[in-house]
Amino acid sequence: MKVAFCDRDGTLIKDYPDEDWRFIEEPEFFEDTVATLHELRKRDYEIIVISNQYLIGEGYITQEHYDMLAKKFLEYLTNANISILNVYYCPHRREEGCSCIKPNTGMAERALVEYPTIDMEKSFVVGNTSVDIELARNLGMKSFGLEVVSDYCQNTNIKRLNALLKYV
Ligand SMILES: [Mg+2]
Ligand SMILES: [Zn+2]
Where does Zn(2+) bind (predicted)? Predict the structure, then answer.
C-alpha cells in the first residue's frame, strides 16, 4: 500500500505558538485540507498522521487536552468522509532523547510494523518544518515541504498542500 505520511500542525490544521495551544478548543483545518486528502484517498493513498506533541511532555497542554483535540480532528475528517488509517504522535519532551520524535523514525517504524505492506518507494512525507523533511531523508523517502526550504534531493517545495497533487 502507498501512504501519505502527513504532519498535522501547520500542515493539515493551523499551528500556534506552543504557549497558545492550551487555549485551542477546536482544530482549525486549512481551506484545502479536505479536498487534498480526498483526492489522495481517491488515488489509493492511505493517510497516516505523524505528529510531534512535545506540548504534552513539556506541560503546554495536558494529555486530556491532546485527546480532546485529536478526537475532534478525527471526527471532522470522518464527517468529511475521509478515513485516516492511523495517527501516531510523540508525547515526549524534546530533550528526552526518544526515538519517536521527528526527525527520528520511531513513529514511521511503528507504522511499518503495523502495516507491513507499506511501499516506502511509493509513499511520501508532507510537512511544514525541517523535521518532516529530515524524517523523509532518514527514511529515504520522497517529501513535500510546505513553505519550508530544504535542499534534500527527494524533496519538493510547495506553497499550498494541494500543490502536491501535481506530483503524486
Ligand atoms: Mg508541523
Ligand atoms: Zn517520542
Answer: 90, 92, 98, 100
Starting at the earlier edge strand, list the strands of the sheet with 142-146.
Answer: 86-90, 45-52, 2-6, 124-127, 142-146, 155-158
Going from N- to C-terminal start, the domains of the chain cover 2-166
Closest ligand by atom to 110 CA: 2
92 is in an annotated binding site: yes
Ligand 1 mean position, distance from CA 8 (Å):
6
Tens-binned pLDDT, residue by residue, of the chain (168 aa): 999 999 999 999 999 999 999 999 999 999 999 999 999 999 999 999 999 999 999 999 999 999 999 999 999 999 999 999 999 999 999 999 999 999 999 999 999 999 999 999 999 999 999 999 999 999 999 999 999 989 999 999 999 999 999 999
Q: Are 120 and 143 in contact (CB under 8 A)?
A: no
